[in-house]
UniProtKB/TrEMBL annotation:
UniProt keyword annotations, A-Z: NAD
Pfam families reported for this sequence: Nitroreductase
PANTHER family reported in the protein's UniProt record: NADPH NITROREDUCTASE (PTHR23026), OXYGEN-INSENSITIVE NAD(P)H NITROREDUCTASE (PTHR23026:SF125)
GO BP terms, alphabetized: 2,4,6-trinitrotoluene catabolic process
Keyword NAD: yes
Domain Nitroreductase: start-end pairs: 8-166
Lineage: Bacteria, Bacillati, Bacillota, Clostridia, Eubacteriales
The protein, known as: Nitroreductase family protein
Organism of derivation: Clostridium aciditolerans
Amino acid sequence: MNETLKSIRNRRSTRSYLPEQIKDEELKAIIDAGIYAPSATNKQPWHFTVVQNKDLIDRLSDGFKEIARKSDNEYVKKYGENEKFHVFYNAPTVILVSGDESNNYASVDCAAAVENMLIAAESLEIGSCWVGFIAYLLNSEEGKEFVKELGIPEGFKQIHSVALGYKKFNLTKAPARKENIVNYIK
Ligand SMILES: Cc1cc2nc3c(=O)[nH]c(=O)nc-3n(C[C@H](O)[C@H](O)[C@H](O)COP(=O)(O)O)c2cc1C
């Protein structure tokens, strides 16, 4: 297996991080991998907001939990009510990926950017987790002040986010993959 395939295979969602910040050059390489993702008709309809301010990351988590507690969705509500839960698992870096609201493919293109960043992080032995939950806050009425504080551009909507940091534990076991999901026609 080459190094790229190893990074794809070894990547796991990391939910425990060391408090130490990742290096600027590592962050830059990860963002670069996101920016070089494919996008429909090469529109690159994304914006990346990097947050390394612990106070803001914690307030975003608290804001999400407040919304989650009011949710009709029992699965989401449970996270809001869990005192120990942190939406970014106390990761020292968070990348919020927002998409151009006028672009029909923004969600797909931003997902491609996220996946590139997760694989790039793994290749640098940095833990990552794709965090969709934060959109509940940032796309809500209550999230508007945060959107302003974060400087998410006008016309862009929060789509995905990535938690990043050095791994507290080395996870290797992937959740089982479904079987019979490939047809070969030769
Ligand atoms: C669109 C999307 C949203 C996700 N949102 C969250 C999230 O909010 N919180 C979380 O802990 N994991 C989230 N995940 C990670 C998945 O739970 C994880 O990828 C899945 O359980 C498989 O585990 P693995 O990443 O270790 O292979 C998300 C993944 C995707 C693709």
